[in-house]
Predict the 3D structure of the following.
Amino acid sequence: KPINERQRLPVVPQGIERDDFLKALAELKGQLGAEHVEVNDKPLRDGWYMEHPNTHDMMTILDEEELVASAVVYPSNTEEVQEIVRWANKYRIPIFPISMGRNLGYGGAAPRVRGSVTIDLGKRMNKILDINPEDYTCLVEPGVSFYALYEAIQEKGYDHMWIDSPDLGGGSVLGNTIDRGVGYTPYGDHWACHSGLEVVLPTGEAIRTGMGALPGNNTWQSFPYGFGPYSDGIFSQSNYGIVTKMGMTLMPNPGGYESFLYTFQKEEDLAPLMEIIRPLRISNILENVAQVRHVTQAIAARGLPRATFFSSSGPIPNNIIHAAAAKTPVGDHTWAYYGMSYGPAHIRAHKLALVDSEFLKIPGAKKIDTSTLPPDEYFWARDRVAAGVPDIHELRWVNWTPNGAHIAFSPVSPIRGTDATALFALGKAAHDKYGIDFFPAFCVGLREMHLIVEIVFDRDDVKARKAALDCLRDLVDEAAELGYGEYRTHLVLMDQVAKTYSWNDGAIMKFNEKLKDALDPNGILAPGRCGIWPKRYRGRGWEM
Ligand code: ADP
């Protein structure tokens, strides 16, 4: 049949005939209900962040058809997830679990292997199973977004508890946490803050980790370790299991908070600034994951297209960015530090005074009087996020190009002037080479920082997509040569990034593969995710 506007021939996973695949799907429909198994035979629609597709990556860096699902299934509980897994084993069909699929910049909802059956856990498994106001914990299913958790806590009137949200609040708490995403309150290291998982293994058994393994326990969400090996780690950034429940700790309302914003004039201020930040952050005077952002991104975050400022190709010149910045309420600068201090006023006062005297040691540094900033200013979006209030203002810089999409370069480094300078230079050179605007933001964890560089590109422009990907590939390798590794990466770069972790002849990947083969002998679960390929895929040209 010809493929017209209304219909696409669904992709079929490699290694199974179309008819057999459709028969297998019919069997699954019998088990889950026909309405809970959807063949991906409609045109691929991108939607937008809040109405994103679950069939592919709406911000694709390759042709959209490359990493596309053959079908999407919607389990309603753990038992149904187990049934799907057993079904996949029976027919050797690759399955790819997503929670909500809003992992934009890292692959969205797309599976790594074309034609995988996507398990969209979030659609029907979206309950907050528990919020415990005494222990400050909760237990969530994959479809609970940061917004939903925030709203549930507000509705119950639990003013004494905060959640922690990443830059964008529409994603899944569970999905973000097991991909080791971060937020901006003192509880920003989501993985470190979780406690207890329920996991369906690739062969269909369900396990509970930590105290969850003890029947009748009452500490699953308050003591993460349980007894014996701590197994949770292997279910983060992996393809060893499908997480169906997760415990999360909640932050006590600190009894007051205050955001602050400092600007620094020169590019070279980055190095001394990092030297000032490190001891303040490690000693918790700077209390949250701070952002040191470059002015180019600040201009883009205003939501206007780049063409408003500059209509030629090639990176936007510095003088144009500075002229634009000079007209904003924050004023001209090169770096901006967005931070927050927590606690009642008298506690904050001491910390803020220390920060102020340290930051102002840099010539030209300015403390912005934030009371003068209009309500729509980006600063207030940072303020909300750092106070645990979900937000989506951050998306605005995607308007920078037509059909704006983004993909991230996110290396980890020490909090040190020399490292910040080296990464900045490396990033700038690669962006210049490919004619791309450079949006660096240093996110200071505790003893390390992630440089987050979002490359914004026109996803309908093949050349722009290629430039973005080539730039990113160069960055990953060049950074690795200097000792910097990614903390997380896009589906398309997983093989490359995994290869940079090569100490002792790739010993860590050999170990990962051993685990994969033991846990998933038929190699059905998310093959290739994080560079881990099951035996029957290895050495057969799947890597990219
Ligand atoms: P979010 O909507 O929070 O951004 P996603 O659902 O896109 O998160 O999840 C990010 C990635 O983590 C997915 O692409 C998938 O590989 C993995 N993942 C998400 N949820 C699960 C889960 N419940 N079990 C196993 N892996 C998952």
Q: What stands out?
A: The chain has four domains: 18-120, 128-252, 257-491, 501-537. DSSP finds 14 helices and 20 strands in the chain. The mean pLDDT is 94. Residues 97-103, 107, 121, 142, 171-172, 174-176, 178-179, 242-243, 526, 529 surround adenosine-5'-diphosphate (CB under 6 Å).
